[in-house]
Amino acid sequence: MSLTEKNRWYAGVSPLDVTAEDFCKLHQTGFIPSHIYERYEETGGLKWVGTTEKYSELQETKRHGNLSVEYRKTGKDLEYCKTDADGDIVRGQDGLALMMNLEEKKAAGVALKDQTIVAFADGEPIGMVCNEFGAVGVWVESRAQKQGIGTHLLATYMLENPGVRIGQMTNAGFNMTIAAHKNLCAALAETQALPGRTVAKSQESQRREPPTQSALKD
Q: What gap in Å lies between CA 216 and CA 128, rounded to an integer?
């Protein structure tokens, strides 16, 4: 199926068919204070994710300002337990959980490979995007922010996993989602050769003030 088919996207809504503001409203589940992730923004704050040896599969290299950034994955196969009709884990005679085979994973529509993408500069991890308990988590060290790295990570992840919902957002995450919407629309329009459909209804790519925390509760 093509990425532009609506049923592949969360709630059946393609980025091409909504403004950036409506895209954020659809994908935002709440507000999260930015200080929660301050430790990840420090220089070396993402060192725990691992090295280029772990993320051995180079996806692409892009220039962001004065940084040459490698986007990498592990290429690791994901494993899932088999479950019965009641959602209980299926176990073998030895009591151990049975794992899905490849065909069962495809039938279930689950991700086959590790979805995490890590951005490396000079061999050091400076940004990452991953599945964070069903939502989308994006982090970029302060020294590498405001250069489009987080936006590229988010847009790439969503193109590869169009059915996900982003989840809670910091103020910076809200603005990043606005920017990512533009990237998504451009990528989808290029795929389908649809000139003039880069952004739905109006140009919504400019930075805007996110809703207040109280407004997000309405």
A: 26
